[in-house]
Every structure is written in C-alpha cells, then in structure tokens.
Amino acid sequence: MPSPPPAVSVVIPTYNHAQFLGQALRSVLAQTCAGWEAIVVNNYSQDNTAEIVAAFDDPRIQLVNFRNHGIIAASRNHGVQLARAELVAFLDSDDVWYPRKLECCLARLEEGYDLVCHGEAWTTDGAPARNMFYGPEARAAYRSLLFNGNCISTSAVVVKKTVLRQAGGFNEDARFVTVEDYDLWLRLSRAGARIGFVREILGEYRIHGANASKALLRHLEAEIAVIESHFAALAALDWITRLRIRRRRALAYYGTARGFQTAGDYREAWRWFARAYRESPFILRMHAAVLLNLLAPLRRAFA
Description:
Blueprint: E1 8-14, H1 18-29, E2 36-42, H2 49-56, E3 61-65, H3 72-82, E4 87-90, E5 96-97, H4 101-109, E6 115-124, E7 127-132, H5 142-148, E8 157-160, H6 161-167, H7 180-190, E9 195-207, H8 213-231, H9 239-262, H10 266-279, H11 284-301
Parallel strand pairs: 1-2, 1-4, 2-3, 6-9
Antiparallel strand pairs: 4-8, 5-9, 6-7, 6-8
Helix pairs in contact: 1-2, 5-7, 8-9, 9-10, 10-11
C-alpha cells in the first residue's frame, strides 16, 4: 500500500552548493512539522552534492538530477511536477529555515490564503545584516506589486500547488533569470491568488560577498524585462499610469545604483542614479542615497 502524501513538498534546486546544502537539509529535518518530503533538484553539480544528500539516509529526502541549462525556474518547475503534497515550499540550497517555519506557514494557510511568506534574517558572509519583513498584504496586490517592486522572497514561501499550476509555474524565459520568482508572484496576484504574510523571522537569506558588476547588470536587465512584459499587458495607459511606469523603471535603476554603492563602486553608482533621475526624480529615499554617494570620497579621504 502506498504511503499517504506528505503535507508539504520542499523543492530545493541546487548547483555546486554542497558546502551549504547540508545546513539547508538539516534545517528541514529540524522542522516541528514532520509531514514533509524534500526534493533536491540537482543541476548535475560537479562537487559532492550527491554524497551530502546520501549521507542523510532519510527516505523523505530524494535527489533528482535535472539539467536546467542555467534556468533555475526549470528546476523549480520540475520539483513541483514531482511534488506529492498539495502544498509546496521553496528553499534555495544556500538558505536555511528556523524550526517553526512550516508550522507557522501551514497555520496561516488555513486562514484561507493561497500563498504565505514569512520574514527572513539576511546575513552577509555569515554575519547578521538585517531583518526583513515582507508584505504587507496591500503590497501584494497586483498593481502595487508591479509599480512598487517585489515584496516576497522565494525561500520564505509556501504555496498551494493548484494555484502554481493554474498560473503555469515559473516562467522559463531566459530573459527573466534572477527575477523569475517576481514574475510568478505578479501572475499569481493578477489571477486573484490570496497572498498573506507571517510577521515573524522564520529563516535566513544568505548573501555571499558583494555583488559583481555583471550580476547587478544581469539582474537589472531581467527586472526590466519582467516589468515591461507586464506594462505591455496593461489596458488603458492614462497619464498617471505613465508616470507610475516611469517611476517603476527609476526604482529598478535606483536599486542597481545602490548595489554598486554598497560594493564601493561609486562612479558606476552615479551612472545609475542619473538614469533613475531622468526617469523620475520623485523617489525620496534616492535623495539620501545620492548624498551618501557625494560624501563617500570625503569619508575615504579622512579614513
């Protein structure tokens, strides 16, 4: 007789992350909610990923080799196809959960939500950076999500498999790589999915070192591709909507400028601050960031 399906299927895409994967899996094993399965979708890693998974010797954890050709969305979609549970949780292989993550998210889903997202502790190279609380619900409404930016984190999400399938899963368009999750949340919200939030830190999002210029620019290109695809589907573009579109592009350029600023590349930050201002100068926090960029050479001179 086949075993009953688990309550949650945990989909973990991975590629050459053996040094982190063990911690991610241990955080799943530590969950207070025991009714789960973990599907590690391995993009034919060249490290000892397979040995790490085998060492757990737990029938709830399975390793599936799947070549995604650089499209992590394809790995996540493959994991969802294999999922036996009606609920799916995503966990990147370099992130970790706290023990009550699934328990709290399942309780929130029982209130009638289709997707829930909890808070995360962001760390940089193992050091605490900030606590991030996503949402609130009003921010997850389609137009707010589109015009104000993403407010949901993939490793913090538990979602009903039915709504994932109805939305067509993650978009595997190569132009969307790094923000394919944002596109999915937009499509789910547009389709009427009810999105809720747990205002509690239930996991860690790990940042490894400063972002390289190439990674920052690739992320920007992907973000612009996603928002432009949604702008093209909007019906009437009155003058207010056109202003909001320009402001949204400015937010994307501002985010890139802040990334270069954080990495210490103040010259490149100026380039993207300038592009943001040309699109829309009405972003209050940008003025403070520009002031920081002005003062940066002085701080270095007197350091």
